[in-house]
Amino acid sequence: MLSIIVAAGWPIWPLIACSILALALIIERALQLRDERVLPPALVQQTIDLTRKGFPTVDAIQKIGQSSPLGQVLASALQCLHEEPRASEERIRERMELQGRQTTMQLERFLPALATIASVAPLLGLLGTVVGMIEIFGADQAIGGNQPVQLAHGISIALYNTAFGLIVAIPSLMAWRYFRATVDRQILSLESSSERFVRHLRQLRG
Q1: pLDDT tens digits in sequence order for the chain, 206 residues long
Q2: What single-letter DSSP state applies at residue 205?
Q3: How far apart, in whole angstroms, are the C-alpha atoms of residue 23 and residue 135?
Q4: Quick one: CA torsion of 28, 31, 32, 33, rounded to 10 degrees?
Q5: For a surface tag, which of 19, 90, 94, 116 has the fewest beta carbons within 10 Å of its beta carbon?
Q6: CA-CA distance, 59 to 65, in Å (whole number)?
Q7: Per-residue CA distances from 171 to 12, 32, 110, 120 (Å)
Q8: At what angle do helices 43-52 and 58-67 cross, to 10 degrees?
């Protein structure tokens, strides 16, 4: 493998950097976008039960907000009521929507970078192949040689860049599509849970 990397020339090094970065981003997003971390299944009901016993304390609101992205959205509504006890339902919704947008940005973190790697890696691989072909034919013409075996070997080495670019791009693209679908589903669940909590607050306030 090391001999292939050395033979492929300098254009393969950006691809290696992209592969390391893509792997790191995939692992990070896989850990951060787990459903149990983003959408704890019992959190909405626990928060509803808590508010039925009385308005939560500041510490309790902070604890809810620190629990998960869903907790951040629920806590924003409680924080709004803590600051403005007579806040209208529209005002509460505005605070939750604002926090929801911030939470969405957290969920989508690094996804544009992963999509960029998936788009750029094949181009970097093609660039490496073109550079390698130029060097091969330039060297062959300079020495006036005509050795088909060596020429074919040189071309195969140049094509390593294209192959490596595709190896990096395909998993990156698959991971990006998976995480994109996961985030979209989680955002929909956040909206559904937020609406349920707002209805509860409406009933609670009479």
Answers
A1: 677 677 667 888 999 999 999 999 999 999 999 999 999 999 999 999 999 988 899 999 999 999 999 999 999 999 999 999 888 999 999 999 999 999 999 999 999 999 999 999 999 999 988 888 887 777 655 555 556 666 776 777 778 889 999 999 999 999 999 999 999 999 999 999 999 999 999 888 76
A2: T
A3: 31
A4: 120
A5: 90
A6: 10
A7: 17, 19, 15, 13
A8: 170
* C-alpha atoms less than 13 angstroms from C-alpha of 43 in its C-beta half-sphere: 26
Q: What length is written for the chain?
A: 206
Distance (Å, whole) CA 160 – CA 3: 12
Instruction: Kindly state the tokens that stand for 83.
Output: 């600051």
Report the alpha-carbon angle 198-200-206, nearest 5: 105
Instruction: Determine contact, residues 163/46, Cβ cutoff 8 Å.
Output: no
Q: In 10 A of CB 139, how many CB atoms?
A: 13
Contact 96, 198 (CB under 8 A): yes
The one-letter amino acid at 161:
N
